[in-house]
Amino acid sequence: MAESFGNSFTVVEVTADDGETQIWIAAAKPSQALTLVLAAAPEGSTAELLDIAPTSEQQRTLEELNLEPGDVHRLDKA
Question: Which long-range contacts (CB under 8 A, 24 or more apart) does 2-7 make?
């Protein structure tokens, strides 16, 4: 049986080969988030989990992205 992605958001920091960092959101458990984000990030990137719990307002914003379990989304700089 396949493992469930869960119903939470995980925050991942990605560092590209050129040193640029990006913040990604994964609609998955932390144990799966790194793999999912690295599959979508530029080749050669590294990633690490950020131990950040979204505020209530941030949680609502993330829910508005309508991510399905297993989806990832890069947050662009404002």
Answer: 3/32, 4/29, 4/69, 5/29, 5/32, 5/69, 5/70, 6/69, 7/69
